[in-house]
Design a protein that fits this description.
This protein is of the alpha/beta class. It has a single domain, classed as Rossmann fold, CATH 3.40.50. 29% of the residues lie in helices and 25% in strands. The protein binds S-adenosylmethionine.
């Protein structure tokens, strides 16, 4: 196991998983309700033990999850077993799918990665999505230094995911509040 794998796997084994939601994110429910996300081939990078992959599968999506932590992968494998999705163990920085995805659901993976590695992650997001595909992203707002989770200031995100490659939406969705005062800004970008 690499150091990165060990660190995340240890968090799962020791129950240090304060980021985990008890239910499906209201942002995902909004994107499903307004048609931003429609059944398609969707990737959930850094899926952890989140509820959203199963919710997407039950809504008719073909779901692929990716995570470096074996405990998280085992959880998603069991959750998706009856729905035909795939739960892959792997590193977001090296994952190369056989064909591009129609959509990506990005929830607390980007904010968990070391900031110096974000340009490499952004390049992967662009590689993974077909032109016209949707990046449904929740940008974590911590308002403080350090992490994870790291603060995802929108100006920084616009520089990371620039207009030439990404179409930014001209509308917004309600912020997703966390019990610890953090919140996420949901924005659905389109791959140019
Ligand atoms: C903060 S957790 C979020 C999990 C999940 N998205 C959720 O909302 O509960 C970050 C996840 O990213 C995974 N992760 C971190 N670095 C990764 C990497 N380089 N490649 C794949 N997964 C990674 C961790 O194992 C962990 O499950």
């Amino acid at each position: 196991m690499s150091d990165d794998t060990n660190a995340w796997e240890t968090r799962y084994r020791e129950g240090r998983t304060g980021w985990q939601r008890e239910d499906v994110s209201p942002a995902l429910l909004a994107w499903l309700a307004d048609g931003t996300l429609k059944p398609c081939r969707i990737l959930v990078p850094g899926a952890g033990r989140s509820h959203e992959p199963l919710h997407l599968a039950l809504a008719g999506f073909h779901v692929t999850t990716l995570d470096i932590a074996p405990t998280a992968v085992a959880h998603q494998r069991a959750a998706l077993a009856a729905r035909g999705g795939a739960a892959l163990e792997g590193d977001v920085f090296t994952f190369t799918p056989g064909q591009p995805f129609d959509a990506i659901y990005e929830q607390t993976c980007l904010c968990a990665l070391p900031p110096p590695r974000l340009p490499a992650y952004a390049a992967q997001l662009a590689r993974w999505l077909r032109p016209g595909g949707v990046l449904a992203a929740l940008f974590m707002q911590t308002g403080r230094e350090g992490g994870p989770p790291f603060h995802c200031a929108l100006p920084d995100m616009r520089a990371l995911l620039p207009g030439g490659t990404w179409r930014w939406p001209d509308r917004s969705w309600p912020e997703v509040r966390h019990h610890d005062g953090l919140f996420e800004i949901p924005l659905a970008l389109t791959r140019g």
